Amino acid sequence: MNGLELPAEFLERIRDLESGRVQPPVLKHAATVLLLRDRADGLEVFMLRRVSSMAFAPGAYVFPGGGVDARDAEYHQPVTDFTSWGEVFGADEGTARALVCAAVRETFEEAHVLLAGPSPDKIVEDTAPYEADRLALLDRSHSLAGFLDANGLVLRADLLRPWGHWITPIIEKRRYDTRFFVAALPEGQRALDVSTEADRVAWVRPAEGLERVTRGEWFMLPPTIAMLKSLTAYGSVAEVLAAEHRFAVHQPDAKIIDGVPYLVLPDEASHQYEA
Fold it and tell me: Is 79 a member of any domain?
């Protein structure tokens, strides 16, 4: 079994959930982007370390991303086939629209990288002129659709690829139904340390990131580990974007085994956990 032993405090929660005395929290849709670039020594991915004061996963290294905002589904320019995205995600067209738009918005908010351009075949090369708009997105005084329309920009969903789907286990008090995307860092743009939810950022080779987890230098949640492991099979951004990647849904399960609570993980997330 691939599993992570949980603190004893989870025993009662697992029993309450199994008996129906407690209901799991409602899932919230979320989108996360693995932002990629090529370097001489191989593929690198952009990561952030969440500040220690965060309620969810404090101190964890993660990819840019976050929960879907209700207004993410307001974007209606007809250059993106959101129905096809929904078929990949196993979601309706409206949910797929919100997820793709959330992926673009969160990447801009947390890394200053904007997957949009003045036309369907162009992309913004310098995001500095849009800093005030980024801050307005952060404080929710501006919607993504409003920002793009006001600046004559088109969302470039074609630069994203679906990469993973993870659902937070029912034992957690905050639960997310998260779709992971991959995207290349656009030419001319730079990923910056601008997230208010992070205290450190790094470009890292996937194998190196996993090594840091093994050495206890970095902390990551199982889905992040799984996503890094999936990237180790590729040598370049082009290979990742061209891959026929298997898009499967994963949800770790909580079980009590011989009186000990465990989080049972799929093989993809078993990098450092044994039971």
Answer: yes
CB contact at 8 A, 263 and 6: yes
Q: How many domains, the chain?
A: 1
pLDDT in tens, 73-114: 998 877 788 889 999 988 999 999 999 999 999 999 999 999
Q: What's the predicted TM-score (pTM) here? A: 0.91
Domain that holds residue 244: 25-251
What CATH number corresponds to the domain at position 208?
3.90.79.10
